[in-house]
Amino acid sequence: MIEVSDAPGLDAAVMSSLERVRTFIDARLDAAIEMSADASPRLVDAMRYALLAPGKRLRPTLVLWAASACSSDGAGRSCEEAWEAAAPAALAVEMIHAYSLVHDDLPAMDDDDLRRGRPTCHRQFDEATAILCGDALQALAFEALAQGMPAATAARGCLVLARAAGGEALVGGQADDLAAERGWVSDLATAPAAEQVAWLERIHRRKTGALFIAALELGGLSVAARHDQLAMLAAFGRVFGLAFQIADDILDAEGTEAAVGKRVGKDVERGKLTFPSVIGLEASRERGHALAREAVGAVAGMGPEADDLARLAHWIIRRNH
Ligand code: GRG
What we know:
Layout: H1 7-32, H2 41-51, H3 58-71, H4 79-104, E1 114-115, E2 118-119, H5 121-124, H6 127-148, H7 151-165, H8 170-181, H9 193-222, H10 227-254, H11 257-260, H12 266-269, H13 275-279, H14 281-298, H15 307-318
Antiparallel strand pairs: 1-2
The structure holds geranylgeranyl diphosphate.
């Protein structure tokens, strides 16, 4: 099992592994966004701007690492072959993620000016273009999956992705989060801490967690993973997603705009319910580390091939961006 005694070494290992994924994925994202002359040039510019912006590529990373972790175990596939098989799914999840960020930043939602260290899509272009850009990225995600995978895997993959992106998950979590922020949910502000934590977990399980779990499942599906492997990946995803979100809340409370690439301190400014605001910063950090350990335990049965996933789980709560 991965230990965190050598934290600087762990950070360096994760950063260099993420860099390898970025090189692999960015070249393919760039190619996937080539459009015919029928697409409006301004729209395509906005799509390229949003999709190729310098994000961490965490979701495609999970797709690729899930695929390689499931491939070595007697499946007779090399890591390179696993990544190639999983590439359409990796592109698709990043497209959904990029669309969700563009829409989340809109004035009607979170109203942000900065994303990934650059002006948000609607600030760089205009609001209507940003809305259409998100719409087109969402459609392109399903095109990438359906076109790049064998038919039966593609059908299953589209189902997994549609559920994770839909009204019961990403969009539903976002809708409930907005409802609470705008005071449409009564009693939440005065509810006991345990109820507030349960509410936070329910939001984040859908708004951010579902896409992480889908990324891992899609990675497994791409290489025809066994049921037990898919179950381990799902268990990892459930706790990884929550650890990621706790870290996101901590970064909003004490990160810097330069490192995070977006405005920080917004949650406090808006009196938003977050893990630090409900249980405090130290308890949030402890909970995040406990979840990271749980995530590592969830994939322990996959052997050393899951070491990258395990390191990522430890890093996710330590990150500064
Ligand atoms: C608009 C349907 C719709 C959904 C929006 C993703 C989302 C739901 C909102 C984004 C707002 C936000 C800051 C959520 C917290 C978690 C999150 C998704 C952070 C950004 O993800 P990272 O850190 O970003 O993986 P990069 O830029 O590295 O890809």
